[in-house]
Amino acid sequence: MLDRNPFTNTLANAANEEASDNGDFLRMSDILRFLRRYFLTIAVTTIIGVGVAGYIAWTATPVYTARAQVLIDPRISQIQREQVGEAVVPLDTAQMESQLALLRSEGIAKTVIATLDLTKDPDFQFKPKSTWLPFRSAPPQASDSDKLREAVLIFQEGLDVSRVGISYGIDIAFGAKDPEKAARISNTTAILYVRDQLETRRLAAQAGSSWLEDKINVLRQKMNSAARTAQEFKASRDYRLVPQQDRGREAQPSDRITDLAHNAREFGITLEELESTAQTYRKLYESYLLAYTEALQRDSYPVSNARVISTALPPLGKSHPKTQLILALGTFIGLLAGIGIALIRNTTA
Questions:
Q1: SS3 content of the chain, % helix, strand, coil (to 5)
Q2: Which pLDDT score is estimated for 79?
Q3: Do 218 and 254 share a domain, yes or no?
């Protein structure tokens, strides 16, 4: 039986309109209803994500990172500055990046590998590929150069060098499976870097000494020749009073002195010019001789502007993998996957 009461019909129409208007908005009750309905799906997917993340974190090979620090100090003491003969120039970003590139170079890597004999370390050798096929031939034996190349690549992958803030400090970090090995390699890298700085300065001093020695020999010859020329020119005009019996002999100068006097009069050369030339060569010779002495001092006692300020200790805990981060990421991925599956099921229902 139909209700013909106008008031009742009006209330029913208003309720239907309000329900249709609210249907376009997501209410908290709808979210709670959705979570209660698909709670099991979301929970199972989240647990699976946590389990996979836990398995990855548990089975991953732990890596221990040891850190050493070196300081590049542009300030040199007054005694050292006098020995090296260099001005103190503040280091800029480009110079610091050059030092970082040096630490990452193959030269440092090969020196560390040779010092610690890492080519024989299994951790610095690439693992051969699987030979499960019955008729597959065995891989060829790697040569010494191939082993060194492999060790260099693995070393560079494990090495991490960075500048400490905006300071002159450099952080040298190395990651390895063994904490003792990580500390040993990090310390060796820092020590050999400082030695490389000393060796570079020593070789530069040796090259400078050789060049100065050759230059000094040339200047010595020119200085002696100029001094001899001035003396012979002066002898060609000798007006000293000599005894009567020797006057006849002194009046006959040698052929060289005669030619020198004749050439001097012909080209207008004076005694002052010859003595000035001889004095100039003498000053050049003395300045080069002083520089040569300083170069020998640098060669015998080279000064490095880099030093180790912090040695690496064996780390107490692993740096990789980060278990908490992996578990959090696995939980988040599992939760998102569960919500996605629940939305798909809700849409197709």
A1: 65, 10, 25
A2: 40
A3: yes
